[in-house]
Every structure is written in C-alpha cells, then in structure tokens.
Amino acid sequence: MSKKVTFGVKPEPARADAAKVAKVDEWVNIRDQDAMKRLTIDVPASLHARIKSQCALRGVKMADEVRELLEKQFPKS
Prior knowledge:
The structure is a single chain. The protein is mostly helical. It has a domain at 42-77. It is 56% helix and 0% strand. The longest helix has 17 residues, at 15-31.
C-alpha cells in the first residue's frame, strides 16, 4: 500500500506580516555574524586536570577561560 502526500504552495505573507518577517530575517542575519564554531583540540590529561581544577576553584567554565586566552592571543585587527 502506497500513500501519496501532496504539498501545497507556500502562502505569501500579508503586507503587514511582510515587514515583520523582514525584521526577523534581519535579526537572524545580525545574530549569525558572530556565531559560535566548535574547536576541538587534544591536550595532555595532566593539563586538562589543571585547567579543570583551576576553573572549578574560580567558579568559571573551562570554555570561557579558553576563549578569553584565545582572544588575548589573537586580538581583532
């Protein structure tokens, strides 16, 4: 038994909604300019343990500390 599903045409937004959609699209584009990207690195277990324990003592996230170090090392030009 085969089922067929048909999709209709996407409705065009009304005039009042078009401005709202444009604002949302603009917001998404602005937000994505500094989107996060994942960076995976291998570090020795001893270094990982030192980073983790120091971050725990300071009450900060490891990722935030590493990001801060990278920002200092590679400032925006």
